[in-house]
Write a structure and sequence with these properties.
The protein is of the alpha/beta class. It is built from 11 helices and 11 strands. Helix 5 links the parallel strand 5 (145-149) and strand 6 (176-180).
Length: 369
């Protein structure tokens, strides 16, 4: 058996502000291993996955791979940004180049059945498609540790089949995969181990695999550069045309194989493409900050107007020779107690009242939307 690349140790496993769900936790996983995390509602499955992904503190002895892809059980608030643009921003934040980001985002949208929704805003997606989008974000940069918290929630049979295929692809390139499963939303998994939480303890047991059929209407296309892509059958002509126009040969076109028919030991590059080339840490931090700024609710749509109004309002207090200058002078110099304040107070009150009205209007628009 391979040496473990994921080691989770914690004396007390608990959420950031919650009760202890398990004590004296010591778990490990090897490359290519698929771990099912199971347990009753409230047993701590999400907490365990968050600790494994590094989102919660654990003991210093814990070890995890360098790159982690995480898909939460559900997103509380999804930003008003097109799905493909959101994925491109995440890919660039992960250090991928522009062309590679476009290619990977397009491939994932096709494999997960989201190509038709690439231009839709995230907040407008259905529950099942939003869950597919969260899985796509976790898979985008081929992480060495893939953490999926109940990814099949709200999905139809096609979505479950596609997610199951992606899990097997990740395991095929030697990534560690942790998947929380819910009894009411079954998700077939390959053989591996199960971490089961119950009564403050985590038991480990082996697990047999489930057979998974390839999603209907999905085609395998291998181009001359050695990259294999999965695309919807309806989009196959456009993909072939784009490859030929780019001067690439078409090596193979065939229906997608069942996941169980993949032979262990296949070259991962043949299945998932070459490993991503990531930029340096400085670039990733800078681009990540830019992308996160785009996702802020105030930056989206008309929110920037409110920020501009507040900035102008503050400038009136800083720059000299503005209507606010007498009021500032009155408040900081006691020798000017006889200075009339009616005019400056009015200049202070009216812009403030206007800003409150604008903020209330924008808040109403966002709530009604």
């Amino acid at each position: 058996m391979s040496e473990p690349v994921l080691v989770v140790r914690a004396r007390r496993l608990r959420p950031a502000r919650g009760v202890v769900v398990a004590r004296d936790v010591t778990l490990d996983a090897a490359p290519g291993e698929v771990v099912a995390v199971e347990g009753p509602n409230g047993s701590g499955k999400s907490t365990l996955l968050a600790a494994a992904a590094g989102l919660l503190p654990a003991d210093n002895a814990s070890v995890r791979p360098g790159s982690v892809g995480y898909s939460p059980e559900r997103a509380g608030v999804l930003p008003r940004i097109p799905l493909q643009r959101w994925l491109l921003g995440l890919a660039r934040t992960a250090g991928l180049g522009r062309d590679e980001s476009v290619r990977r985002a397009g491939d994932l949208l096709a494999r997960l059945g989201l190509a038709h929704a690439s231009a839709m805003s995230l907040h407008a997606l259905s529950r099942g498609n939003a869950q597919r989008a969260l899985v796509a974000q976790a898979l985008l940069a081929d992480p060495d540790l893939l953490v999926l918290d109940e990814p099949s929630g709200g999905m139809d049979a096609d979505g479950v089949s596609r997610v199951a295929s992606e899990i097997r692809r990740a395991a095929g390139r030697r990534a560690v995969v942790l998947v929380a499963r819910h009894p009411t939303a079954p998700l077939p998994l390959p053989s591996g181990v199960t971490w089961r939480l119950r009564d403050g303890a985590v038991d480990t047991r082996p697990r047999d695999g489930d057979r998974v059929a390839a999603p209907a209407g999905l085609m395998e296309v291998e181009t001359g550069d050695g990259v294999m892509r999965l695309v919807d059958e309806a989009e196959l002509p456009a993909v072939l045309r784009a490859a030929l126009e780019a001067g690439q040969a078409i090596r193979r076109v065939q229906p997608a194989r069942d996941a169980d028919s993949d032979v262990a030991g296949d070259d991962p590059a043949e299945v998932t493409g070459a490993a991503p080339r990531r930029a340096g840490a400085v670039y990733r931090v800078l681009y990540g900050a830019t992308h996160r700024a785009r996702l802020l609710a105030l930056i989206e749509r008309a929110g920037w107007r409110l920020l501009t109004a507040v900035a102008v309002f503050l400038v009136l207090f800083v720059v000299r020779n503005t209507p606010m200058a007498p009021l500032l002078k009155l408040s900081t110099h006691p020798t000017t107690l006889q200075t009339p304040v009616g005019g400056p107070a009015a200049w202070l009150f009216l812009p403030g009242l206007a800003l409150v009205a604008v903020a209330a209007f924008l808040a109403t628009r966002r709530v009604s939307a």
